[in-house]
């Protein structure tokens, strides 16, 4: 059961950010034409309340957004389900900026990268799917073909998300790393699977101050590798565990979306909810170092 203190903490951080966000956007907004008068009625739920409800929806692991009725004790001024869907689409921009500025962790010099599929529907129904027509595509991962998108994640050894990127399902795993904006906050070593092998990518990252470490394929020549790097490659299960929690606990993947905007708000709020988890998958590097010395 989520304590009232945790709910208050989440709402306080989001509300303080939304107040500052509204202040900055209001100061930089262009002046409206006074001749054309439009109604600007204030909504019952503010952007901070909408974002908080979305985050708590993932945090409490509800299976349907309509179950937000259980939070009427914390948010008595609730609205209908259809109206709430409209409000959550309006809160996409502050939600995305809040995630990027307040919820990402700090690089420790040891990072892990991986991609996970976000299925839009079953692969057998790809030609019948219309919600993400022109956006979701057919792609392949380690467990087979899928239809949808790819979520690329970089995490540190503490289980904190350092950065993320959403692409179409057929995008190569190495493409996001070629974008400086995706790894500009990363330094030290980053560990990935065999899908990130590439001489050009390795050389580019070295110039940017990032050392990419991967396993080698069977048809490649063997090369010397530090024992510590071999051990850390075996610890890549950390990021796979994070992907599992994001999908099964935060529910960033399901096939009930009715618009791309709802898909984005569901993804962003799920990532925010994960950042508030008290216990995240992590590595005890002290134990690993002691084993290497022994």
UniProtKB/TrEMBL annotation:
Q: What is this protein called?
A: IS982 family transposase
Question: Which taxonomic lineage does the organism of this UniProt entry have?
Answer: Bacteria, Pseudomonadati, Bacteroidota, Flavobacteriia, Flavobacteriales
SUPFAM superfamilies given for it? Ribonuclease H-like (SSF53098)
Domain Transposase DDE spans what residues?
A: 105-259
